[in-house]
Amino acid sequence: MKKPLMMSICNLVFWVLVGFASLASAQTVGQLIPHKVKLESVDYLGKRAVKITEDGQVANGEAYAIVKDAVFHNGAIEVELAGRPADPASGSRGFIGIAFRLQNGKFEYIYLRPTNGRADDQVRRNHSAQYSAYSNFSFADARQQAPEKYESYVDLEPGVWTRYRITVEGTKARLYVHGASQPCLIVNDLKLGDSSGCVALWIGPGTEGYFTGLEIKAATVGVVTNDASGTTHIPARIQELIVAQ
């Protein structure tokens, strides 16, 4: 076996071990590391969940809870979430979503604005789902550099359980909502590149957020036998983190 191939297999085995070390229950606040948020285990609309709110005044993008020991590169992240304004009079949108590939304080994130989903304003509806990257690509940067490219419409209601799923491959990500077979948001140029890092439950300013049923699944990589082109295919599931309800 050639040395580069051997190194690739060793790296793959390393991530397999890291992934399976991350079996945990993020419905238990003890399995989360709060970052400028308060955490509670609660019953919400018939489900056991984690409630997340800001811990004091928090800058936009900085309120989240990291899932312990979950290392994510490519694959899928699924969860049921419900976001609503903590103060209905505040004008908050109930921002809620998932941050991924978090490393050294930087991360990608895709989130929802539940109060926009059924607003009587088409522009607000078009801003129901959003991609951003912290700390150098906010929603304002996205709208200035490429209007409409990093956000889209999806039917949402504040405070209601919503099935949320993202898939990530290299520098591409897709958002699926309500179990739809087609994505409502497509991102082909993740700003932090093809990287790895932690996963976090994310809320925006003024949000009262609830999360349950989290699953983190690594992509199945294809590749053991050499084909005519010399490519080696090693089938393996690198990581799977399932959180029971």
What does this protein look like?
The structure is a single chain. By secondary structure, the protein is mainly β. It has a single domain (3-242), classed as Jelly Rolls (Sandwich), CATH 2.60.120. The chain is 12% helix and 44% strand. The protein is built from 3 helices and 17 strands. The strands form 3 sheets. Strands 2, 3, 5, 10, 11, 12, 14 and 17 form an 8-stranded antiparallel β-sheet that branches. A 7-stranded antiparallel β-sheet has the order 1-4-13-6-7-8-9. A hairpin with a 2-residue loop joins strand 10 and strand 11 (172-177). The chain is globular, with a radius of gyration of 18 Å. The relative contact order is 0.24. The model is unreliable at 2-26 and 222-245 (pLDDT under 50).
Question: What distance lies between the first and last C-alpha atoms, to the nearest angstrom?
Answer: 44 Å
Provide the gyration radius in Å.
18 Å
Query: Class, according to the CATH hierarchy?
Result: Mainly Beta
* Alpha-beta classification: mainly beta
Catalogue the unreliable spans: 2-26, 222-245
What percent strand? 35-45%
CATH architecture: Sandwich
The domain count comes to 1
Helix fraction, binned, reads 10-25%
The main sheet comes to: 8 strands, antiparallel
SSE sequence, one letter per element: HEEEEEEEHEHEEEEEEEEE
What gross morphology would you assign?
Answer: globular
